[in-house]
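Re: that backbone. C-alpha cells:
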C-alpha cells in the first residue's frame, strides 16, 4: 500500500465531512432520521439515492461491482481494480443541490473526448482509482471522495473483488432461438437479444465488504432496486454474506420496481415476473413492501399475489417523470419512500 502523503492529510482536513459534534454530511444529527441502505447499480440506484437523500441524513449505498464495459471495463482490465463506474454514479447522485455539490457532480461525471487513450474515460473513475492506489483501501478511498464532494451519504462496493457476471440465455443467437447459451460479462448480458433465465457471479463465493454487511444489519430500512434486474439488482443476492445479512436483518425491506421492461435483459417482463425471477435467485428473501408506479402495473391483482410470496404489501404511487420517459422523478420517488417509511415502518426517533 502506498504511504499516505501530507497532501492527502490536508485534503481530509479541508473537505466537508462528519464533524466532532456527531452531525452527518447533511447536517442532521445521527439518529434523527432512519438509517437507510440502498442496493443496486447504474442509473436505477442513482435515481433511488437522489430521492432518499431528500428524506434521510443516514444513507448508505451498496453498489454492484460486475461492470466490464466502457471506462470501468478498461480500468478494470488494465489495473485489476474494482470497476469504479457505478460507484462514481452513486457518489454523483449523493451530491447536494448547492453549487458545491452540483459542480462536483458534473466534474466527476465528465468524460474526456479525444482520439487518444483518455477518450470516454470519466474524471470520477480516474479519481477513485487514483485514491485506491494511494490508500490501498477501497472503502477508505470512497469515503474520502465522498467527503471531497460533500456527498450526503456513504458509498460502498458490495464485494471486495471485481466480479464477472454469467447468464444462461435462451435464444442469445437468433439463429438458434431454442438453444440456451452461457453469456459472460455484464455489458453483454445487459444487451442480449435472448431471454435471460438466470445469472451467477464468478467467483461463485465472493467476499462481501464487511462495512456493507454491517450497514444492512444496522439499517432501519433496506431498499433494493430499481435498476437493471439481472445485472444490477440480482447480483447483490449472489454474494452469500450479503444475502445472509439481507435475510437476517431486522430492517424493513422495500423492493422498488422499474418503470418499464429493459430492451434485451427483461424484454416483455411484467411487474410480477420481476418478482418471480427474484424469488428463484433468493427463495429465502422476505420483503415488506413492493413499490411500483401506478401507471406501470396493468394487472394489480397478479402483482399483489406475487408480492404475497415474499410477505410483502404493494404500494402504488406516481413516481415517473412527467415527460413520459421511463425515468423516476426524484421528488415523487422521495415522497413515495417517505410515505412507506411512515406507514410501514416502526415509528422511530425521526418521527
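Recovered sequence:
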Amino acid at each position: 500500500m502506498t504511504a499516505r502523503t501530507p497532501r492527502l492529510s490536508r485534503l481530509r482536513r479541508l473537505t466537508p465531512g462528519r464533524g466532532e459534534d456527531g452531525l452527518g454530511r447533511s447536517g442532521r444529527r445521527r439518529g434523527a432520521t432512519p438509517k437507510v441502505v440502498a442496493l443496486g447499480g447504474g442509473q436505477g440506484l442513482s435515481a433511488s439515492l437522489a430521492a432518499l437523500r431528500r428524506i434521510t441524513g443516514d444513507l448508505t449505498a451498496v453498489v454492484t461491482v460486475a461492470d466490464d464495459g466502457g471506462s470501468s471495463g478498461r480500468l478494470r482490465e488494465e489495473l485489476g481494480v474494482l470497476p469504479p463506474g457505478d460507484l462514481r454514479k452513486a457518489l454523483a447522485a449523493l451530491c447536494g443541490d448547492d453549487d458545491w455539490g452540483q459542480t462536483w457532480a458534473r466534474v466527476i461525471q465528465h468524460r474526456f473526448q479525444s482520439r487518444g487513450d483518455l477518450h470516454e474515460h470519466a474524471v470520477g473513475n480516474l479519481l477513485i482509482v487514483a485514491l485506491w492506489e494511494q490508500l490501498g483501501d477501497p472503502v477508505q478511498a470512497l469515503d474520502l471522495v465522498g467527503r471531497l464532494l460533500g456527498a450526503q451519504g456513504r458509498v460502498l462496493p458490495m464485494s471486495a473483488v471485481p466480479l464477472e457476471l454469467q447468464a444462461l440465455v435462451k435464444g442469445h443467437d437468433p439463429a438458434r432461438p431454442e438453444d440456451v447459451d452461457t453469456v459472460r460479462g455484464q455489458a453483454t448480458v445487459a444487451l442480449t437479444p435472448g431471454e435471460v433465465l438466470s445469472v451467477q457471479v464468478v467467483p461463485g463465493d465472493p467476499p462481501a465488504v464487511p462495512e456493507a454487511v454491517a450497514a444492512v444489519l444496522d439499517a432501519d430500512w433496506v431498499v433494493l432496486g430499481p435498476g437493471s434486474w439481472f445485472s444490477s439488482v440480482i447480483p447483490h443476492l449472489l454474494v452469500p454474506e450479503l444475502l445472509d445479512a439481507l435475510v437476517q436483518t431486522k430492517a424493513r425491506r422495500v423492493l422498488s420496481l422499474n418503470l418499464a421492461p429493459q430492451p434485451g435483459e427483461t424484454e416483455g417482463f411484467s411487474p410480477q415476473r420481476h418478482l418471480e425471477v427474484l424469488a428463484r435467485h433468493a427463495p429465502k428473501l422476505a420483503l415488506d413492501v413492493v413499490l411500483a408506479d401506478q401507471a406501470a402495473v396493468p394487472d394489480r391483482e397478479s402483482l399483489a399475489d406475487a408480492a404475497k410470496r415474499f410477505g410483502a404489501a404493494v404500494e402504488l404511487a406516481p413516481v415517473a417523470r412527467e415527460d413520459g420517459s421511463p425515468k423516476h422523478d426524484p421528488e415523487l420517488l422521495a415522497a413515495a419512500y417517505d410515505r412507506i417509511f411512515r406507514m410501514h415502518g416502526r415509528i422511530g426517533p425521526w418521527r
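The chain is about 40% helix and 15% strand. The two ends are 44 Å apart (CA to CA).
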